Amino acid sequence: MTEIKNIRNTMLVSPTKVKSYGNININCNDAEMGAAIRTAQNVHLKDALNRDLIEHIQQLVYNKLKGNEDTIDDEANEMYKAFLDEYLEPALAYRTAVELVTTTTLKIRGMGLVKNSDNNVNTTSAAEMSYTTEYYGALYNDALNRAVDFLCANKNAFAEIEDGFCTCSSKPRFAQTGLFLG
User: Fold this and answer.
1) Where are the domains of the chain?
2) Which DSSP category does 108 fall into?
3) For 113-169, how does the pLDDT look when each residue is reduced to its tens digit (9 = 90+)?
């Protein structure tokens, strides 16, 4: 049971890798980033793409980290590695930024929800937070769309992709709009 928990906690991208995209400052706390990465992949990415696929990739990465057989770097898993490197990493970098907008600005302390302030740093307004969240959300949605295109073009390489995941006439798409469709 512990090993399954460890596999599900395996991050598919490191805080250093996310910072390399240039969206997040180098001095951002790695522990906060780790929590944001886990939320990005275990809540948003698994729901958007395919839970079994993401968990299988986590297993392959975990195996590599632990020195086990059947790793993300094995030749038999080259499509999983390509998918991780080219599509999941950018999606996770952008979704992590979305998560960090709120979690680094607002903190739950003993006195309730607070916003940190400093003489050299100005706090942001709710509108600025919303704009930044929407901006990185749009980049995340674009990365998801590219990931889906890759999965649809290569669906036979991924055992976790069900037959109905995408067809010639329709496939899952992600967009950020101001339209209310309900």
Assistant:
1) 2-157
2) E
3) 777 666 666 777 888 888 888 888 888 999 998 998 899 899 899 999 887 777 555
